[in-house]
Write a structure and sequence with these properties.
482 residues; alpha+beta; Ubiquitin-like (UB roll); DNA polymerase, domain 1; Enolase-like, domain 1; 5-stranded mixed β-sheet; 5-stranded antiparallel β-sheet; 18 helices; 32% helix; 22% strand; CO_DH_flav_C; 2Fe-2S-bd_dom_sf; Xanthine dehydrogenase small subunit
């Protein structure tokens, strides 16, 4: 097809002139004059640009809050984009979420308010009885300088008490919207001025053909990284191949968990929570809700960032990856994919297709992250732990770090200090000292080298305290009942 097609509120959009780097936010504000969606940061950090995007999945049509500032128009093919202008209550009244924000004084200057309303709309749609933690999680990706957040949290609970989900337009029109989106599917190849080219493959086999045919294409899955290449660095990403709708399969058997590279953090979250519950809170600190709804596990690996937050955990868990080129596939350990800063073991025309995680067995597992802001912030240091103990002796130790080197990397000296040692405080103290031999971290605006070395050592002490069975709690409790 030579036209990109999607639904915008209640209007069908068909575009033949679309550039690879055209953002959804610019399209909404400039081309359609839907100015309720704001630009605050242009990097997916503040949430002022939040819109809802509905997409077809194996379980039906789902809607999720996403950041329009780093979402590309081409990624919206066969989707339903919903802006704040589309919200409406019954009989011409305000939507329950909007009314709750008014009643509880959730807005002051008002600039961030549309983004908060859309995030709360997503929560209201999917969770009729949220806990405080779930409300806070839904608002991770939205920043406000005025309200202090408490009025907005009160509005979240008030909106859910008001109910009305069954009568909401996105529910009453769901079957019709799903049918219309299904009719839009197919491969799309469009460009602006004949140069700024965007390709949306029909399926994974089509993607394999496209990758062989194009010269140095830019793969765009969730765009949570590539979006900043455009908005902050003005990079040319053409030809861009948009794959966020592909490789969504998750399969679990007695031996392993297979996750398609296109699975988002939000889609993977239930599997992580079921099989690795110790790292559930870590998983929910990867970006804000909007970022987790867009960002993919495969994309976080493939771009090779030294501060990517899923690779340290996945390396510690012993993950493998499947790389595909045409019809050929090869499987390698995840840790060997990262060669050096900016260099990965991926051939021209090759792409990451699947992540394979062994089942946990009887290992002790943990993941930690230190960042300037607790939520929705990039880590200064991240770590994954998988420790196996038999008869009070540590028999295996896999510990991987991000933010400590030019690539995500295992701590070989620290692991050696643990293996064969008793499961005791002194063993983890030895590992805390040994980790200094594994890394020579850099100083940057996130943290100094000395701070990173200190944090890395303290992670070993934290692991021991959490698993030693002491009477005193290691983590501060959250709200009552959480």
């Amino acid at each position: 097809m030579t036209e990109l097609r999607f639904l915008l509120n209640d209007t069908e959009i068909s575009l033949s002139e679309v550039g690879a780097s055209d953002t959804l936010l610019d399209f909404l504000r400039i081309s359609r004059r839907l100015t309720g969606t704001k630009e605050g940061c242009a990097e997916g950090d503040c949430g002022a640009c939040t819109v809802m995007v509905g997409r077809l999945t194996p379980v039906g049509l789902i809607y999720e809050p996403v950041n329009a500032c780093i979402r590309f128009v081409a990624s919206c093919h066969a989707c339903h984009v919903v802006t704040i202008e589309h919200l409406r209550g019954q009989d011409g009244k305000l939507h329950p979420v909007q009314q709750a924000m008014v009643d509880h004084h959730g807005s002051q200057c008002g600039f961030c308010t549309p983004g908060f309303v859309m995030a709360l709309y997503g929560l209201w749609m999917t969770n009729p009885d949220p806990t405080m933690t779930e409300v806070e999680t839904a608002l991770q990706g939205n920043l406000c300088r005025c309200t202090g957040y408490e009025p907005i949290v009160r509005a979240a609970f008030a909106a859910t008490r008001a109910g009305g989900q069954a009568a909401d337009a996105l529910n009453t029109e769901r079957e019709n919207v799903a049918s219309r989106l299904a009719g839009m599917r197919g491969r799309v190849d469009v460009a602006r001025d004949g140069r700024n080219r965007a390709i949306v493959p029909a399926d994974v086999d089509d993607l394999a053909e496209v990758m062989l045919a194009q010269d140095k294409p830019t793969l765009v899955a969730g765009a949570t990284d590539v979006g900043l290449w455009v908005t902050k660095f003005l990079r040319n990403i053409s030809p861009a191949v948009f794959i966020g709708h592909l490789m969504k399969d998750i399969a679990v058997d007695d031996q392993e968990i297979r996750i398609g590279a296109g699975v988002t953090y939000s889609e993977a979250a239930p599997v992580i929570a079921e099989h690795f519950p110790e790292v559930d809170s870590y998983w929910h600190r990867i970006g804000g809700w909007q970022v987790r709804n867009m960002g993919t596990v495969g994309g976080n690996i493939a771009n090779g960032s030294p501060i990517g937050e899923s690779p340290p955990l996945l390396i510690a868990l012993g993950a493998r990856i499947v790389l595909r080129r045409g019809a050929e596939r090869r499987e390698i350990p995840l840790e060997s994919y990262f060669i050096e800063y900016g260099k990965q073991d991926r051939k021209p025309g090759e792409f990451l297709e699947t992540i394979i995680i062994p089942r946990r067995g009887d290992a002790l597992i943990a993941a930690y992250k230190i960042s300037k802001r607790r939520d929705a912030d990039i880590s200064a240091v991240a770590a994954g732990f998988r420790i196996t103990v038999a008869h009070d002796i540590i028999t295996r130790a896999h510990v991987a770090f991000g933010g400590m080197a030019g690539i995500p990397k295992r701590a070989a000296h620290a692991e050696a200090a643990l293996v064969g040692a008793p499961f005791a405080r002194q063993s983890f103290e030895a590992a805390a000292r040994a980790v200094a031999e594994d890394f020579q971290p850099l100083s940057d605006w996130r943290a100094s080298a000395e701070y990173r070395r200190t944090v890395a050592a303290n992670f070993f002490r934290r692991f021991w305290l959490e698993h030693a069975g002491g009477a005193l709690p290691v983590r501060l409790p959250r709200a009552a009942g959480e």
